[in-house]
Design a protein that fits this description.
Chain lengths: 239, 714
C-alpha cells in the first residue's frame, strides 16, 4: 500500500494563493487505509481551511468529494461538475492521483495535500513502515522475504557492510540491519546457500531512478493485440 | 448474525427516519406484549428527559402507573444485561416517570372525534385500551362497566399494597381525558342488552368483560361457611377491615392470585396463612419474587397437595384435607395431575379460599347473535378479533384466557385495529411483521462489559408492611433512576457499514474495545455483539460507519442548534458533554450558580461518539471556544473511551491551532461532566482565558480570533 502524510496547512494554503472556491478531494484507496486521505481526513482538511479563512477574515467556499480512487480515470471523470465549479483542487491522494487529476483536468490547478512517502505495511497501532521500493527486479526469493533495497540503508545487494553491529545498522541503533534479518530468516529456513551465491548487481535502470515505467497487459489492451496481429501478418509476408 | 450493511444511497434515503433504528429490535422490546420502545425511554430517563420518556410509554401503554408497579415485565426476563449482571429495572423506571409531578402538568389532547360511535363493554385494561386507540383514530368510543370505576380486575382484585387505587385512577382519568367516555354502573346483559347498543347507534361493539367469576371445586364441604372464592375475597378486602383477626387461613392454589389472596389475608389480621398447591416448588406458577415477598410476610407454602375435602364442624370450616400429588404434568407437559389417595394431609383452619382459576361471565351474550361454544367460551376468530357477529369484536382475558394486564392491553390494540378496518370497509388483517430481534449477548462480549449493580427498589420491611394495605415498594429516587437507566446497553443501536465507502482498512477492528468488527471484503459488524458505543464510527477514515440511532449529522445539528440559541455577540462556547452523566449532575440548564457566560452544552449519548471532526466543526460553525467535558475516570459504560477521546481532542487541537484558532479556546476536562462544580469552573476558566488574551494579556504566539463584542465591552 502507498503511504502518505499530510502536508502542513500553511503550505496547502500558500499553494492555494487565496483561491476562493476549493474542492478538497479525498481518495478511497491507500490513503484512506493509512488514515491520511480518506473522506474523514478530507472533511477535516476542509474544516481547517474554512476555519483558517475565517480567522484570516477571507472566507472560502470548500466542498469535499472522495472518489473510490484517484488513480483511475473512470472514477476521476465522475468529478467533472465539482472540479469545474472550483477555482482549485486540493487532493489528498498520493502523487499518482494528483498527477492523473491534473492531467484529466488540464486547466485546473490540482494541488497536493500530502507528501507521498513510501510503500509499506501497518506495523503497529497507527503506524506504517516502508517495506518495498519498487526496484523492478524483486530479490525477495533469495533474501528470505526481507527487502535489502528498502530496508538496508545502503540498499546493498550482496550482504552486510562492515558497519553491521549486533543486528543494528551503523546508520542508527534504532534501525535493524536488513542483512542481519536476512541471515536470521534464511538460517531459520535451514538454507543459507543463497547467501553464499554471488548476485549480479541490480539494473538500476529498471528502478525508480530510471525512466518512467509502463506496464502493458496485452490480454486487456486492444492496441497491444492489434500490434501483435499485424506482427504476425508481417512475419507471414516475410516468408 | 450478519452485520448490517447499506449503500450510501440507501443510507441517504433512510437517514433521519426510524428505519435504521427499527431494523432490529432489542429483546426487551420484542418480549414486551405491546412492544414498548424500552431502549428509547430508558435513554430519555438517563438524560433527564422524563416527560418525553413517559410519552414514549404512553404511545403504546395507557397504564404506565399501574404497569410500572404490577407488570410481570417479560422485558426484564429477556434483557441482555441478564448475561452481564442483572436486568435493567425497566418496570421500576416506568413507575418512576409515571409517578413524577411534571411542572407542565399532565395535559392530554382530545383528538378530533368525528367518526362512528363504538361501544366497549368492560373497562378493564383491554377495553380501555381499545377505546383509547379508537378515540385516537377519531371514533367516539363509550365504555360501559358494571363497576363503579374503571380499571377492571386491576381495581377489584389486584391488592392495593401493590397497586394503590389512586395510581390506577390516574391512568384511567388520563384515558378519559383523551376522548373516551366512561359509563359506569351499567351491566350489559341486564336491563340493558347488547342489542340496545346497536339501536343506540353504536356501529361496532367490543366485548372486553374479562374473567370475572372465580372457580371453586365441587369437593365435599365446599359450600360451608368460611369457604370463599378469590375474586370476591379480594374485592371485599378493601372494606373488610381486620376481618380475619387471629384466624387460620388456607389458600388453595399456587398462582399469582393465590399469593395475592394469602398476602391479603395476612394484612386482614390472619394469625396463620398457608398456601396449598398441586405443584412442587419448581412447577409453582406464581412469580418467584411474589412468592419471596409472601414468605417474608410469613406465608407458608405447602406443595404437592390436591384438595380432597373441606372439613366442616357445625356448618363452618374446620380444616381442609388433601391427597398427595404424584405428578402435575404428564409426559407431554400437559396439566394432568395424578394423586395418591392414600397419603392424606389435614390442615386445621377457619377459612378456606379457592384461588384456582377464573372464568367468563357471558350472560350478556345469551340469546344474541354473539355465540358461545359448548364450554362456555366466546366464539372468536383470533385472526380478526371478531366474534360470531360481524359488528361485535372481543379482547382481553375473555378471549385470551388468564394473563397479565399488559397482554390484555396488547389484545385491546388488536381489537381496535380490527374495528377500525371494519368501519373503514376494509378486510380485517391483523398480521404484523415485526423486525427480528437481535441475538443473545455472546459470553466473550459479556465478559468485557462494565458491570453495574441494579438499583434496589426501596421497600417497607415485611414486619411493618404486613399490617396494612399501604404500597410497600417506595419507588426510585431521581438519582437512582437516572443511574439505573444508564445501565441499559442500548441494544441493537449499533452501526451500519456503507458498502461503497468501506475501504476494509481495519480501523474499526483495531479501535473497537470489544473486537467486534470482522473485516473480510469489507467490515461486518454484528448487531448482536456490538455494544453501540460508536467508537468505530468516530474513527473510520472513510466515514463508512453510521450509527443507527445517532447518524453522522446528529452532532453537527446539535452544534448548530446550540450556536443558534446563543447571542451572536457573546463568547459562544460549545460544551460537548455526556448526555447520561451531565444531566444527573444537574449542571446543564439555568442553575443560578452557573457562570454568566454565553455557552451551550451539546449532549452526546456517550463521549465515545465525539469525533475530532465534530470538535473542529464547532469552530467552523462559529463557536468562540469548545470545552470537552468528560466524566469521572472509569465511570463510562464503555472501555477505552477516555483514551480515545483524549487522542481525538489532541488531534483536533493540533489541526485547529494550525488553522489559527487560539489554544485557549480549546479545553478538555476529565471528571467534569458528572460534577457541577467542575463543569462551572471549566466554563469560567475558558471565559477568563479568552477574555484576557483578547485584552492582550497572553504571550504572543498564535493569532487570537478577532474580538467579539462581548469581549470588547469587558
Ligand atoms: C388477583 C389478581 C392479581 C393480578 N395481578 C396481576 C399483576 O400483578 N400483573 C398483571 O399484569 N396482571 C395481573 N392480573 C391480571 C390482570 O388483572 C388482568 O390480566 C387484566 O385485568 C385483564 O383485563 P381485561 O380487560 O381482560 O378484563 P378485566 O380487568 O377483568 O376487566 C373486565 C371488566 O368488565 C366488566 N364487566 C364484566 N362483565 C360486564 C358486563 N356484563 N357489563 C358491564 N361490565 C362488565 C368488569 O366489571 C370489569 O371491570 C391479576 C389478576 C388477578 C385476579
Ligand atoms: S440492556 Fe436495554 S436495550 Fe438491552 S435488553 Fe436490556 S433494557 Fe433492552
Ligand atoms: S466500536 Fe462500538 S459501535 Fe463499533 S463495533 Fe465496537 S462496540 Fe460496536
Amino acid at each position: 500500500m502507498i503511504v502518505a502524510e499530510r502536508k502542513p496547512l500553511e503550505e496547502i494554503r500558500r499553494n492555494l494563493a487565496g483561491r476562493k472556491k476549493v474542492l478538497v478531494l479525498g481518495c478511497g484507496g491507500c490513503v484512506t487505509v493509512c488514515l491520511t486521505g480518506g473522506e474523514r481526513q478530507a472533511d477535516m482538511l476542509a474544516s481547517q481551511l474554512r476555519t483558517a479563512a475565517k480567522v484570516a477574515g477571507e472566507p472560502v467556499e470548500v466542498t469535499v468529494r472522495t472518489p473510490t480512487r484517484q488513480c483511475d480515470r473512470e472514477f476521476i471523470d465522475t468529478l467533472k461538475a465539482d472540479v469545474e465549479a472550483a477555482d482549485a483542487v486540493v487532493s489528498l491522494a498520493c502523487g499518482v492521483g494528483v498527477q492523473l487529476m491534473a492531467e484529466v483536468y488540464e486547466t485546473k490547478p490540482v494541488l497536493p495535500a500530502v507528501n507521498t512517502t513510501f510503500m509499506g505495511a501497518h506495523s503497529g497501532p497507527g503506524t506504517w513502515t516502508e517495506n518495498c521500493r519498487g526496484c523492478g527486479q524483486c530479490v525477495l526469493a533469495e533474501t528470505g522475504g526481507v527487502c535489502p533495497v528498502a530496508r538496508c540503508a545502503k540498499s546493498l545487494i550482496n550482504g552486510a557492510c562492515g558497519g553491521t553491529n549486533k543486528g543494528k545498522c551503523e546508520v542508527s541503533r534504532d534501525i535493524d540491519c536488513a542483512w542481519y534479518l536476512i541471515y536470521k530468516r534464511l538460517k531459520a529456513r535451514g538454507d543459507l546457500s543463497f547467501l553464499r551465491a554471488e548476485r549480479e548487481p541490480l539494473d538500476w535502470g529498471m528502478s525508480s531512478s530510471g525512466t518512467r515505467r509502463t506496464l502493458v497487459h496485452a490480454e486487456v489492451n486492444d492496441q497491444a493485440h492489434r500490434r501483435g496481429a499485424e506482427g504476425a501478418e508481417g512475419a507471414a509476408e516475410r516468408k | 448474525m450478519p452485520g448490517r450493511q447499506l449503500t450510501s444511497e440507501e443510507y441517504a434515503r433512510l437517514a433521519g427516519s426510524d428505519a435504521l433504528i427499527e431494523t432490529e429490535w432489542a429483546p426487551c422490546r420484542a418480549a414486551c406484549p405491546v412492544h414498548a420502545d424500552v431502549r428509547a425511554y430508558l435513554d430519555l430517563i438517563a438524560r433527564g428527559r422524563f416527560r418525553e420518556a413517559l410519552d414514549v410509554i404512553r404511545e403504546v401503554l395507557p397504564f404506565p402507573g399501574a404497569c410500572g408497579r404490577i407488570c410481570h415485565h417479560p422485558c426484564e426476563q429477556e434483557c441482555r444485561r441478564n448475561d452481564v449482571d442483572q436486568p435493567a429495572a425497566i418496570r421500576d423506571l416506568k413507575r418512576f416517570v409515571a409517578e413524577r409531578d411534571y411542572p407542565e402538568g399532565q395535559k392530554f389532547e382530545k383528538p378530533l372525534q368525528e367518526r362512528d360511535k363504538v361501544a366497549v363493554v368492560g373497562a378493564g385494561p383491554s377495553g380501555l385500551t381499545a377505546a383509547l386507540d379508537l378515540a385516537r383514530l377519531g371514533y367516539r368510543p363509550t365504555v360501559f362497566d358494571r363497576g363503579e370505576a374503571g380499571g377492571g380486575l386491576l381495581r377489584t382484585a389486584v391488592p392495593a399494597y401493590r397497586l394503590p387505587r389512586k395510581v390506577l385512577a390516574a391512568d384511567v382519568d388520563a384515558i378519559v381525558a383523551q376522548g373516551v367516555e366512561l359509563r359506569l354502573n351499567v351491566e350489559v346483559g341486564g336491563a340493558f342488552q347488547l342489542d340496545d347498543l346497536r339501536s343506540q347507534g353504536f356501529k361496532a361493539v367490543v366485548i372486553a368483560v374479562g374473567l370475572s367469576k372465580s372457580r371453586g371445586l365441587p369437593i365435599p364441604g365446599a359450600d360451608a361457611a368460611g369457604v370463599e372464592l378469590a375474586l370476591p375475597f379480594l374485592a371485599a378486602a378493601d372494606s373488610a377491615g381486620p376481618g380475619l383477626a387471629g384466624k387460620s387461613v388456607v389458600v388453595i392454589g399456587g398462582g399469582n392470585v393465590a399469593v395475592d389472596v394469602a398476602r391479603t389475608a395476612v394484612r386482614l389480621g390472619a394469625g396463620r396463612v398457608q398456601m396449598a398447591c398441586l405443584e412442587n416448588e419448581k412447577e409453582q406458577p406464581a412469580w418467584s419474587w411474589e412468592r419471596h415477598e409472601a414468605a417474608e410476610e410469613g406465608v407458608a407454602t405447602l406443595h404437592r397437595l390436591g384438595p380432597k375435602q373441606v372439613l366442616v364442624r357445625d356448618g363452618r370450616v374446620a380444616g381442609a384435607e388433601f391427597k398427595a400429588v404424584t405428578e402435575v404434568f404428564d409426559g407431554n407437559g400437559r396439566f394432568n395431575p395424578k394423586y395418591d389417595e392414600n397419603r392424606l394431609t389435614t390442615l386445621d383452619c377457619d377459612v378456606v379460599v379457592f384461588a384456582i382459576g377464573q372464568e367468563a361471565d357471558l350472560a350478556l351474550v345469551k340469546g344474541t347473535d354473539v355465540k358461545a361454544d359448548e364450554r362456555g367460551r366466546l366464539v372468536f376468530d383470533r385472526s380478526t378479533s371478531r366474534t360470531s357477529a360481524a359488528d361485535v369484536f372481543a379482547c382481553g382475558e375473555v378471549v385470551t384466557g388468564p394473563g397479565s394486564a399488559v397482554e390484555a392491553v396488547a389484545s385491546g390494540h388488536r381489537a381496535a385495529r380490527a374495528v377500525h378496518q371494519f368501519l373503514s370497509g376494509l378486510p380485517i388483517d391483523l398480521g404484523e411483521s415485526l423486525p427480528p430481534k437481535i441475538d443473545k449477548l455472546a459470553p466473550a462480549t459479556a465478559q468485557r462489559l462494565v458491570k453495574a449493580a441494579r438499583a434496589e427498589m426501596p421497600a417497607v420491611p415485611a414486619a411493618e408492611r404486613k399490617a396494612n394495605f399501604g404500597q410497600f415498594e417506595l419507588g426510585l429516587s431521581e438519582a437512582a433512576a437516572m443511574k439505573e437507566a444508564r445501565r441499559c446497553m442500548s441494544c441493537a443501536s449499533g452501526p451500519f457499514v456503507l458498502t461503497d465507502k468501506c475501504a476494509a482498512c481495519l480501523t474499526c477492528r483495531r479501535v473497537c474495545p470489544f473486537e467486534i468488527p470482522e473485516v473480510k471484503e469489507i467490515a461486518d459488524i454484528s448487531s448482536a455483539l456490538c455494544q453501540g458505543c460508536g467508537i468505530c464510527a468516530a474513527e473510520c477514515p472513510a466515514n463508512a460507519i453510521v450509527m443507527a440511532g445517532y447518524g453522522p449529522d446528529a452532532v453537527r445539528k446539535s452544534v448548530d442548534a446550540a450556536l443558534a440559541s446563543l447571542d451572536p455577540k457573546g463568547l459562544r462556547l460549545v460544551i460537548f458533554t455526556c448526555g447520561h452523566h451531565a444531566p444527573a449532575a444537574r449542571w446543564g440548564g439555568s442553575d443560578p450558580a452557573r457562570p454568566a457566560v454565553s455557552a451551550k452544552e451539546v449532549f452526546l449519548p456517550s463521549m465515545s461518539r465525539l469525533s475530532a471532526a465534530d470538535i473542529m466543526y464547532a469552530f467552523e460553525a462559529g463557536a468562540g471556544g469548545v470545552i470537552v467535558l468528560e466524566c469521572e475516570s472509569g465511570t463510562c459504560r464503555y472501555p477505552t473511551v477516555e483514551l480515545r477521546l483524549r487522542k481525538r481532542y489532541e488531534q483536533a487541537r493540533q489541526l485547529l491551532i494550525e488553522a489559527g484558532v487560539a489554544p485557549e479556546r480549546l479545553a478538555l476536562h476529565v471528571g467534569a461532566a458528572d460534577n457541577q462544580e467542575a463543569a462551572f469552573a471549566a466554563i469560567a476558566l475558558m471565559a477568563e482565558r479568552v477574555t484576557r488574551r483578547a485584552q492582550g494579556w497572553a504571550p504572543r504566539g498564535q493569532a487570537a480570533k478577532p474580538q467579539t463584542a462581548e469581549e470588547k465591552s469587558k
